[in-house]
From TrEMBL:
Cited Gene3D superfamilies: PPM-type phosphatase domain
Annotated GO MF terms: protein serine/threonine phosphatase activity
Protein name: Serine/threonine protein phosphatase Stp1
InterPro entries reported for this sequence: PP2C (IPR015655), PPM-type-like_dom_sf (IPR036457), PPM-type_phosphatase-like_dom (IPR001932)
Organism: Pseudomonas flexibilis
Pfam family, one: PP2C_2
Residue intervals of the PPM-type phosphatase domain: 7-241
Upper classification of the organism: Bacteria, Pseudomonadati, Pseudomonadota, Gammaproteobacteria, Pseudomonadales
Top-level taxonomic group: Bacteria
């Protein structure tokens, strides 16, 4: 029987403009779980929200099949959403009442994987020398494009383009999207915050993922992103499969 093992690397950078890093990362290749969370609501609130997501995901049991583990992730994020939206907001210690974060997570179990997300942090798959965006942004810009009200170029310039329509902690009820897929030899995944993918072309991201190791891919991604303005925090996890008989 063929099994899939994983190599991964994670990196975050404050960028060139922000004074604080509100992103948080999870990289657990031994358990087939990775995540990127991009906090919002000011530096204290955003950093707290993203850290809570990552810490709670890291504490989940790792036994059971894909569906059981996926359900645990769902429930974990629902619980964090409730905590951020109710308990922390009511404590009165924060100047800004918004305490939230995007999240994108990848779960791999056997020869299957699932991507789960809320917000505009993304999951990409490089397969057979092509790059695919698996996640779909929960943003005003994406909504306008879906409704054919704006072209992608127009949406990118819209003043509300970066506004989110979903995030953990943003509303009482959290809706998560999930995409399941069968794994193939040589698959490589990229989880990243919007600060990273807005700094790079699709071709540049695909080329970086073609490098021999996750560390090399990350080095290329960040080197290119930091050549630009890097106005936001930059965060990414690169995951590559190894096939072993």
């Amino acid at each position: 029987m063929t099994t899939v093992s994983w190599r991964s690397a994670a990196r975050t950078d404050i960028g060139k403009v922000r004074q604080n890093n509100e992103d948080a990362l999870l990289s657990m290749p031994e358990h087939g779980l990775w995540a990127v969370a991009d906090g919002m609501g000011g530096h204290q609130n955003g950093a707290l929200a993203s850290r809570l997501i990552v810490e709670n995901l890291a504490a989940l049991p790792t036994d059971g099949g894909l569906e059981m583990r996926l359900q645990r992730i769902r429930q974990c994020l629902y619980d964090v959403n409730l905590h951020l939206g109710r308990d922390l907001t009511l404590c009165g210690d924060f100047e800004n009442p918004i305490i939230g974060s995007t999240v994108v997570a990848l779960l791999a179990e056997g020869n299957q994987a699932a991507c789960i997300w809320a917000g505009d942090s993304r999951c990409y798959l490089r397969r057979n020398q092509r790059l695919y965006q698996l996640s779909r942004d929960h943003s005003v810009a994406q909504q306008m494009m879906d409704q054919h009200r704006l072209t992608p170029a127009q949406a990118a310039q819209h003043p509300s383009a970066h506004a989110l329509t979903r995030a953990v902690g943003a509303t009482d009820t959290l809706t998560l999207d999930v995409l399941r897929l069968n794994l193939q030899p040589g698959d490589a995944f990229l989880l990243c915050s919007d600060g990273l993918y807005r700094s790079l072309s699709t071709d540049a991201m695909g080329a970086a993922l073609s490098h021999g190791s996750p560390d090399q891919a990350l080095e290329q991604l960040f080197q290119l992103a930091l050549l630009g303005p890097a106005r936001d925090n930059l965060s990414a996890v690169v995951i590559q499969s190894d096939e072993n008989s």
